């Protein structure tokens, strides 16, 4: 991994409806070739942080009112979402948001819309997605709305990959999925990171699986970063175990 961050967020504050402060001075960075995770309970500010980076806040009457966001060394705080996608920064929203009336393959093809590829190139790249997600090839002609939650999550990630991203923002990929499917999705994310060099910033409540696959983590609480470090360091933090890791700290005698 390069020491030069592909993403650097510096002291951002996010305001909704010009009144509700949802993110308070968040700073973080993602190195090239790294998987970073945003950890924390529901409402901690994880999704707002991702939407600030991908500039999707305006759809929810939100805005970045302080701080800056740099992608590959360039200030993107005011960049448009479509420009960011063309530059290789793509977000997979919480809840998957597949086009239910389109087939699995048609959903994947929409991810390459802005790239103006030939039919042969599209075919080759869809086959690459199927190599990562074999079960999608079996469902390629099925309407996405009739596939399982896990398959829809794979479609959403595969569609993002069709844009040839360098950085993927992944919001709550485990939500509503069985543990076996969650592990399968995170394993695929790790493979994409290791073999294709894709960087990831993942917002996730399933802390245990996230820490197994990431390199660094940031713990958010009430819109602020309250802890950060290598995943091994976070997993060893006794004071974080009870609330974030789902197991009590060890007892101290005396």
* CATH fold annotation of one domain: Rossmann fold
How are strands sequenced across the largest beta sheet?
A: 6-7-8-3-9-10
* CATH fourth-tier homologous superfamily of one domain: P-loop containing nucleotide triphosphate hydrolases
SS field, number of helical segments: 10
Provide the succession of SSEs.
EEEHEEHEHHHHEHEHEEHH
Tally of strands: 10
Protein architecture, described:
The protein is an alpha/beta fold and 254 residues long. It has a domain of 120 residues: P-loop containing nucleotide triphosphate hydrolases (Rossmann fold, 3-Layer(aba) Sandwich). Helices cover 36% and strands 27% of the residues. The protein is built from ten helices and ten strands. The chain has a six-stranded mixed β-sheet, with helices on both faces. A four-stranded antiparallel β-sheet has the order 2-1-4-5, covered by helices on one side. The longest helix has 18 residues. It is globular. It starts with a strand and ends in a 9-residue tail after the last helix.
Q: Tags for this entry?
A:
254 residues, alpha/beta, Rossmann fold, six-stranded mixed beta sheet, four-stranded antiparallel beta sheet, 10 helices, 36% helix, globular
Please outline what is shown here.
This protein has 254 residues and is of the alpha/beta class.
List the topology elements.
Layout: E1 5-16, E2 20-31, E3 35-39, H1 46-53, E4 62-71, E5 74-75, H2 81-86, E6 89-92, H3 104-110, H4 119-132, H5 134-138, H6 149-161, E7 167-171, H7 179-196, E8 199-204, H8 207-213, E9 216-221, E10 224-230, H9 231-235, H10 238-245
Parallel strand pairs: 3-8, 3-9, 6-7, 7-8
Antiparallel strand pairs: 1-2, 1-4, 4-5, 9-10
